[in-house]
Design brief:
Elements: E1 5-7, H1 9-19, H2 33-43, E2 46-47, H3 60-66, H4 71-79, E3 84-88, E4 92-96, H5 104-108, H6 110-113, H7 116-124, H8 126-139, E5 142-143, H9 163-174, E6 178-182, E7 188-191, H10 199-202, H11 209-224, E8 226-227, H12 229-235, H13 240-252, E9 257-261, E10 268-270, E11 282-285, H14 296-303, E12 324-330, E13 332-342, E14 347-355, H15 361-378, E15 383-386, H16 393-399
Parallel strand pairs: 1-9, 14-15
Antiparallel strand pairs: 2-4, 3-4, 5-7, 6-7, 8-10, 9-10, 11-12, 12-13, 13-14
């Protein structure tokens, strides 16, 4: 039996960053569809989230890796070209259309894989669900807001769907409907797959579940570079049994290599084709839903950075803020900023800025200031304003050209 390679923690970190697209310099020419397609193919999953205090989350990973780019070009990949399709992967996500056949097992297993209100409406009102599908078939694309259905009285629930929305979501989960677009208000527009997805994708044979899961784990391994079993499973939210079987099969075929990473308390798996860069010279603000950081235990293991999303934490109990983005500099997460796009005032507001222990504060503040100014220009905002909250706020305010804080 061959020995298991032992990877230094710093090398594992660089491998992970390279796999996620942070090893290459940002383009020095205008970014277009080609670069965006290449990036989404690399990441495989771009998570969607409705929070818009800064930006819709799915726009941010491309900015983090490529710098300023036209958002319309990303919209074009999903809404017009349909190189991307929307489905439940990690969470609600945009994915390359090549992965559609490999998620059909999940569509077929909706009764086990979907949740509450979706399966309930199918069990209790199957004729209603069938009628909605026929309506889309006959009348064309449909939004849930077009349905005259009473919304249940469950204040405070983010899944407070009326029966029509639940039925459309059930049809979406099963693959009977797909999303043809998102409205300006971020509402999903449903249509038949044959009117949205490329014919060659729809006509591709459906793999057996085991084969499909193996491809999803293979895809996750390429996107992660080096990972634990849990990391690989989490990328597409696979069951432990399915993921474990796929990992064993890929390892037996030499498509995953077992490794020990210094400081990790569990075995690792390495993509044999993963890049091993000697350094990473990244500078990026990361969405809370970026695939580099969406699995918080992995973030702690790789970066020594404890990160929690505090959107649903009462304001008085928040430590770092409402919509906090970690700041990547080189191969380290060195700071975090709570950001808000004040569109009416034309300002990118830094509601709080916190630095990590041991950083070179002037250097981090200068780099973060440059990244914030790039983000503000990309978002068509005129200025960056730093609020006096957080230990890095005074240095950052000076770096962006704002007044120093007293006291």
């Amino acid at each position: 039996m061959s020995s298991v390679e032992r990877l230094p923690a710093a090398l594992a970190r660089r491998i992970a960053l390279a796999a996620q697209g942070f090893a290459e310099p940002r383009p020095d020419t205008a970014v277009g569809t080609r670069q965006l397609r290449r990036l989404t193919d690399r990441l495989a999953v771009v998570q969607i989230d409705s929070v818009n205090v800064l930006s819709r989350s799915h726009y941010l990973p491309a900015f983090s890796r490529l710098g300023p780019y036209p958002r319309a070009a990303l919209d074009d990949l999903s809404n017009r070209r349909h190189d991307l399709f929307e489905y439940w992967a990690h969470e609600a996500s945009f994915l390359p259309v090549r992965l559609h056949p490999f998620l059909r097992w999940r569509m077929a297993a909706a009764e086990q894989e979907a949740w509450g209100s979706m399966t309930r409406v199918q069990r209790e009102r199957p004729e209603f669900v069938a009628a909605l599908l026929e309506r889309v078939r006959t009348d064309g694309p449909l939004k849930a807001s077009q349905l005259q259905e009473e919304r249940p009285n469950r204040p405070g629930s983010m899944w407070n769907w009326h029966a029509g929305k639940a039925a459309l979501e059930y049809l979406f989960f099963t693959g009977a409907l797909t999303a043809t677009a998102r409205t300006a208000g971020f509402e999903r527009v449903y249509d038949l797959p044959e009117r949205v997805l490329p014919a060659d994708v729809l006509h591709a044979p459906t793999p057996a579940r085991g084969d499909a899961v193996r491809e999803l784990v293979r895809t996750a391994a390429r996107a992660l570079g080096v990972a634990t079993e849990t990391d690989l499973r989490d990328y597409f939210r696979l069951s432990p049994a399915d993921a474990r079987t796929a990992i064993t099969e890929l390892a037996d075929a030499g498509e995953l290599l077992p490794v020990e990473v210094v400081g990790w308390n569990r075995p690792g798996w390495l993509d044999p084709e993963a890049r091993r860069p000697r350094w990473i010279r990244a500078r990026a603000l990361l969405s809370p839903f970026d695939s580099l950081i969406w699995e918080r235990p992995r973030v702690e293991r790789i970066f020594g950075f404890r990160y929690r999303l505090e959107i649903y934490t009462p304001a008085v109990r928040r430590v770092h803020g409402y919509y906090v983005l970690p700041f990547l500099l080189g191969d380290r997460l060195v700071a975090r900023v709570d950001l808000k796009a004040d569109r009416r005032a034309g300002v990118l507001r830094v509601q709080a800025a916190h630095g990590e222990e041991g950083i070179e504060r002037p250097e981090v503040a200068a780099a973060l200031s440059a990244e914030l100014r790039d983000m503000a220009r990309w978002m068509a905002l005129d200025d960056v304003v730093v609020v006096e909250r957080g230990d890095l706020a005074p240095e950052l305010s000076r770096a962006v050209g704002g007044p120093p804080f007293a006291g």
